[in-house]
Input
Amino acid sequence: MYLIYTTEQDAWDRSEEEGIAQGLAYHTKGQGSRFVTAPIETAEGQWALPIEGYELDEVEAATTVPTFTPKPSPEDGI
Output
């Protein structure tokens, strides 16, 4: 399942919000991450965030999508 965002930053912000809620934190030497998942650019220029294991509010739960079309990579020849 995915949440779709119009900007990459919004998707990263939600991933970080979830990481903080799950107790993830940067370590003192800058190692570790508070991000749970990384956004993926869609063919439509939006950003899909994989949300497996996320705690969603009602609005988010109602707006999830099961699939999306990823942006073609240069290796795809498109």
